[in-house]
Specification:
By secondary structure, the protein is mainly alpha-helical. The protein has five helices and no strands. It starts with a helix and ends with a helix.
């Protein structure tokens, strides 16, 4: 149950962050905003690491496969795409498309067992649910 509440909080934080970052971008430009976001995220992580228990920093060198270390690069791309989509579509419409995309890609990752995730059985009802969500997005797109 706690995972459910954490996921809800995550979605809420992503929406608020997207709006904040879009507002910062209006004054600073996209890449200055992105640098600020990543820098402040880094500083927040260092502060929490200092107080919440210091695991060995060199353990990062033992991570396998190496490509999973690209999460920060992907994070910069996420910040850029969220800011651009919110600026062009508005927060609600952008978040709707972002969430549908997240669902579709997450389901593909699970079904095919990509990136070290345990492979899940294909469930037709999940595909139908995703289809319904996509139809809803298409309807939402029309004015």
């Amino acid at each position: 149950m706690i995972g459910f509440f954490i996921a809800i909080l995550s979605g809420a934080l992503m929406s608020v962050q997207g709006v904040f970052n879009t507002q910062v971008t209006k004054t600073t430009g996209l890449w200055v905003s992105n640098i600020w976001v990543q820098l402040t995220a880094f500083l927040a992580c260092v502060a929490v690491w200092m107080f919440a228990g210091r695991t060995d920093m060199m353990s990062i060198t033992k991570v396998e496969p190496r490509y999973v270390l690209l999460g920060g690069v992907i994070g910069a791309g996420i910040t850029w795409t969220v800011v651009k989509s919110m600026g062009m579509l508005g927060p609600a419409k952008a978040a709707l498309f972002i969430v549908i995309s997240q669902l579709a890609i997450a389901y593909l990752i699970e079904v095919f067992g990509l990136f070290g995730v345990d492979k899940a059985d294909f469930e037709f009802r999940k595909l139908i649910g995703l289809g319904i969500a996509m139809v809803g997005v298409t309807i939402f797109q029309w004015k």
